[in-house]
Write a structure and sequence with these properties.
Elements (H helix, E strand, L loop, with lengths): L3 E4 L5 H11 L4 E5 L2 H11 L6 E5 L5 H15 L4 E4 L14 H29 L3 E7 L8 H21 L5 E7 L11 H13 L6 E6 L3 E7 L11 E2 L1
Helix pairs in contact: 1-6, 3-4, 4-5
Length: 238
């Protein structure tokens, strides 16, 4: 196994997913915007006895993000799974933000995921396996979170496009849509949410799901991926 790349490895879901994959013996490359964040994440993975590579990059900086992904591949080999977890989460109503501020949010929430996919998924398709999983949110838009609602709608569409493009070649493209505030010890505990990333990565191809909608007590598969498998699995317990 070449390992996992976690983009947006801050406290919360990113760190919990890194630990979950490390627990299964996968080496991990951790990408975050600041050295402090990525150092903390790396220290949390070390006890699992796997190799951890710490990398800093702003996901809105295409050159830096591609360089970090190249470094990860150089250290661990082509990844088995890439998780995109970066987002700008802010309250803003329609018309409140400037165009530049919306562009900055879109660059992180959507374009960073596109760049990461474009840089890693074609190689997965050539070898016929791999997973690219995005953290989603805002299953219904909210005017008090306008930029985030737009971004999460965009990334949901991106996942669908990537699935149509690369799913037939054996790459599992999926998202985990989290419909609530993430905090340890709550119904939205990041360790519980992380289980669904591992489940998506290890699903047999005929059972692939494209989106898991996590609402605390249950996680529902809202759609299936483009594999010809048409049934939906509802009410999956965490």
């Amino acid at each position: 196994m070449s390992g996992a790349v976690i983009i947006g490895a801050g406290p919360g879901i990113g760190l919990s997913v890194a630990r979950r994959f490390a627990r299964e013996g996968l080496p991990v490359a951790l990408v975050a915007r600041t050295e402090r964040t990525v150092r903390t994440a790396t220290e949390a993975v070390v006890p699992f006895g796997v190799r951890a590579v710490a990398l800093t990059a702003d996901s809105a900086d295409e050159t830096a993000l591609r360089a970090a992904l190249d470094s990860a591949a150089g250290e661990l080999g082509p990844p088995d799974v890439v998780m995109y977890n970066a987002a700008i989460i802010q309250r803003d109503s329609p018309g409140e933000l400037s165009v530049r501020a919306h562009q900055d949010a879109w660059a992180v929430n959507v374009l960073g995921a596109l760049v990461a996919a474009a840089h890693t998924v074609p190689a997965m398709a050539r070898r016929g396996n791999g997973s690219f999983i995005v953290t989603g949110g805002m299953p219904e838009p909210k005017p008090q979170y306008t930029s985030l609602s737009l971004g999460k709608a965009g990334v949901r569409t991106l996942v669908e496009i990537l699935d149509m493009e690369y799913g037939p070649s054996g790459v599992h493209i999926a998202s985990v849509t989290v419909d609530g505030p993430v905090a340890p010890g709550t119904d939205f505990d990041p360790d519980d949410i992380a289980e669904h990333y591992w489940r998506l990565h290890t699903q047999p191809r005929h059972q692939w799901e494209r989106e898991i909608l996590y609402r605390g007590q249950t996680a529902t598969a809202r759609e299936t991926a483009s594999t010809g498998h048409n049934s939906e699995l509802d009410g999956i317990q965490r």
